[in-house]
Amino acid sequence: MAGDTRARILESATDLFGIRGVDAVSLDTIAADVGVAKQTLLYWFESKDDLVQAVLVQTAGQLAVVIEAAIRASSDDPLDRIEAVVRAVFRPAVRRPSLLGLIGQVSRLAPEVAERFHDELRPLVHRAVVYLRVEMDRGRVRAGDPRLIAALCYATVTGVATEPEALRGVGWLPNTAELRRLRTELLAFLRAALTPAS
Amino acid sequence: MAGDTRARILESATDLFGIRGVDAVSLDTIAADVGVAKQTLLYWFESKDDLVQAVLVQTAGQLAVVIEAAIRASSDDPLDRIEAVVRAVFRPAVRRPSLLGLIGQVSRLAPEVAERFHDELRPLVHRAVVYLRVEMDRGRVRAGDPRLIAALCYATVTGVATEPEALRGVGWLPNTAELRRLRTELLAFLRAALTPAS
DNA sequence: ACATCTCTCTACCATATGGTAGAGAGATGT
DNA sequence: ACATCTCTCTACCATATGGTAGAGAGATGT
């Protein structure tokens, strides 16, 4: 209880920002959710932008940890490894839509905030690109521009993970069982797209 | 000039909402952009929500027209036809990011507004699903749940098309030539994912 | 005992924003 | 000539919101 106020603010803000949108959530709303006064938020974070940035940096950090763990635990085969990473990213994203829901908003946030987030993501992306290039050279992943292939995988996974509501809206995803089937289909889809041409 | 005020408002609002975000753009901003007083906006649209809804409905309508045209002009082969549709959707999305930029915001808008947009999109989705099912039965598209495959294609294309800024942020897309290469890679990616297993 | 640091509170404010009230200019129908 | 309709304007307001001012309670170091 004592000393964890900052962490509780971050957690609450992550969920609220991710689900309702950064602009739609006021400091008062977050404060009420955490159970403190608004000024307490402004003691811990200089401004709302500062809070948004902290949320994004933390989220990126958690994503990185999850991905690292998935990579270490996976087999050497690149398609299996990619599947493991996608599963790892998809799991928290489905349980807690806010995590990836934030990502869809980044490009519309204050430039410095967005930049700070991208700083955090860049090393991850760089590693993925290098990895893809190596495996393409080995012929274990379908040839192509590794940067663009990485971008496509990223777009597909975040597209699916960040917009469950949008997909629900047009009648695609009535429940979580359906969501699991979507994940399965996504993995087959990516595998087919990445398997080297015989 | 006379009588086109409503259309000019819609066009300006589409761009501003799509690029900066619905919440970040005030009625005053739009009015200044169009060159009229704010009240003029409120003469043509009951409220900001009403304007947002009109923008979304128009956007969905334009997408539908573009897609219909692409389908009619394409060959009978399903992979070619899908490629034609993706090209058709991608083109205006790249030239005018606002068009698809809006889509990423739908799930966070007022429920009635989002619902109205989904109403517009549903028939398109339904057609796509029916089409995929038929071609899967014929063995001309890789087997799978047609609804989920449609969802994946949708997620991939919108993911790529709506987040050029995000992709740019992590160092992927410095210019339009790169964007064209991304489109080419996207088409190969989708083709590989949808080609029936031999 | 005192000073300092950590943390949270109440009270308040300036500004932005969606929306209202109501007038009026010009075109069109009868 | 008059009424009505279309369209746009100025002036104004209520509210939400990010942020400031400044106090004070409790813990910790010397």
CATH class of the domain at 57-194 in chain A equals Mainly Alpha
Unreliable stretches covering 5 or more consecutive residues of chain A: none
Q: What proportion of the residues of chain A form beta strands (DSSP E)?
A: under 5%
Overall geometric form of chain A? globular
How many β-strand stretches of chain A?
0
Our measurement of the CA-to-CA distance between the termini of chain A, rounded to an integer number of angstroms, reads 59 Å
Rg of Cα set of chain A = 19 Å
Characterize the biggest β-sheet of chain A.
Answer: none
Described by its quaternary structure, the protein is homodimer
Q: Which two chains touch over the largest interface?
A: A-B, 53 and 54 residues
What report would you give on this structure?
The structure is a homodimer of 198-residue chains. Helix content of chain A is 75%, strand content 0%. Chain A has 198 residues and is mainly α. Chain A has a domain at 57-194: Tetracycline Repressor, domain 2. In chain A, 43% of the residues are buried. The model of chain A has no long low-confidence stretch (mean pLDDT 87). The structure holds a DNA duplex (30 and 30 nucleotides).
SSE blueprint:
The structure is a homodimer of 198-residue chains.
Chain A: H1 5-20, H2 27-34, H3 38-44, H4 48-73, H5 78-95, H6 98-101, H7 111-137, H8 146-162, H9 164-169, H10 176-194
Helix pairs in contact in A: 1-2, 1-4, 2-3, 4-5, 4-7, 5-10, 7-8
The structure holds a DNA duplex (30 and 30 nucleotides).
